[in-house]
């Protein structure tokens, strides 16, 4: 084989590579890089995450299962074969359906691997699956005779549906088209309309262990008179915008479940950007008498607090109980 003929053959192979599968592979790779590179997780991430999760993997798998185009009744050969193709409308519908089956399998598999169920491994798995099966689909399609290969032509597919002599196939194709259009419309509406639930703010109390790591639920329940409780206050802002917070630390005396006395111990103000978490290390000193048990409430407000801060009017609140032990010097006396 001469060099010119070899080059011409390679060029023909490149030119005959299915354009739809090349596009699907490129979109999968691009989606992976966008999802893992954009840190704010905004509209760009969502725009690429939707097709990577709901369409591209299924389309790649469909290309492997059905490499040939759908034949009309006039093109059906006299000798029956098992090579049944599908048209573009059916491919799109199956792509959505298979993607909805593929993604849960990937989600169930990742937690038992060393990578875990994180954004980057999930995006990488879906991208590798899509690209890999797209290449297998391209190989299967190129091995078919050129007249049998599926090519992207949605308009021709619609015309073929209108010309078919089988009423059942016509009805099923129309229903599939409507279902696909509805699914796409729902995705677009969900993408354009913001979620009604809105954002949230998370308030937490932590203490440092022996290694200096912050742990929850390890606050002391007893202290000596004059002793202070070391507490780290954590505020996570997921409101969608920078937010100013005020935290009121309040000592409360309760009788029969009702607060009968309140004493403000300190205030903490914080201006937190969207998606960020700030922590503030505080020393909280209860003013309760020896032998008295009080509730230390941490009340968070967006903006300025009311005149009388309470657990009921706080945007977020948490608390812990502490007992001031009897003074040992008094007992000795």
UniProtKB/TrEMBL annotation:
The keyword Transmembrane applies. It comes from the Archaea. InterPro entries: DUF1616. The keyword Transmembrane helix applies. Residues 25-323 form the DUF1616 domain. The chain crosses the membrane at residues 12-35, 41-66, 92-110, 122-139, 167-193. Pfam families: DUF1616. Keywords: Membrane, Transmembrane, Transmembrane helix. This is DUF1616 domain-containing protein. It comes from Natrialba swarupiae. The lineage of its organism: Archaea, Methanobacteriati, Methanobacteriota, Stenosarchaea group, Halobacteria.
């Amino acid at each position: 084989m001469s060099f010119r003929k070899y080059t011409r053959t390679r060029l023909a192979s490149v030119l005959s590579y299915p354009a739809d599968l090349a596009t699907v592979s490129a979109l999968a790779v691009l989606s992976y890089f966008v999802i893992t590179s954009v840190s704010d997780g905004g509209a760009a991430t969502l725009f690429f995450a939707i097709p990577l999760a709901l369409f591209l993997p299924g389309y790649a798998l469909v290309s492997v299962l059905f490499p040939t185009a759908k034949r009309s009744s006039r093109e059906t050969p006299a000798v029956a074969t098992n090579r049944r193709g599908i048209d573009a409308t059916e491919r799109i519908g199956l792509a959505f359906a298979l993607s909805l089956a593929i993604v849960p399998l990937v989600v169930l598999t990742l937690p038992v691997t060393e990578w875990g169920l994180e954004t980057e491994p999930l995006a990488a798995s879906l991208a590798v699956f899509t690209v890999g099966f797209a290449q297998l689909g391209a190989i299967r399609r190129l091995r078919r005779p050129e007249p049998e290969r599926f090519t992207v032509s949605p308009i021709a597919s619609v015309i073929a549906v209108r010309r078919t002599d089988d009423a059942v196939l016509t009805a099923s194709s129309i229903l599939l088209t409507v279902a696909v259009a509805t699914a796409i419309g729902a995705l677009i509406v969900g993408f354009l309309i913001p979620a009604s639930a809105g954002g949230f703010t998370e308030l937490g109390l932590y203490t440092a262990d022996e290694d200096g790591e912050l742990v929850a639920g390890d606050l002391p329940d007893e202290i000596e008179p004059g002793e202070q409780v070391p507490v780290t206050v954590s505020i996570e802002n997921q409101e969608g915008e920078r937010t100013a917070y005020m935290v009121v630390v309040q000592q409360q005396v309760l009788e029969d479940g009702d607060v009968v006395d309140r004493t403000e111990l300190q205030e903490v103000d914080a201006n937190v950007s969207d998606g960020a978490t700030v922590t503030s290390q505080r020393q909280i000193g209860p003013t309760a008498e020896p032998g008295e048990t009080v509730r230390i409430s941490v009340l968070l407000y967006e903006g300025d607090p009311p005149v009388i801060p309470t657990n009921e009017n706080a945007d977020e609140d948490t608390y812990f109980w502490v007992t001031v032990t009897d003074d040992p010097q008094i007992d000795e006396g």
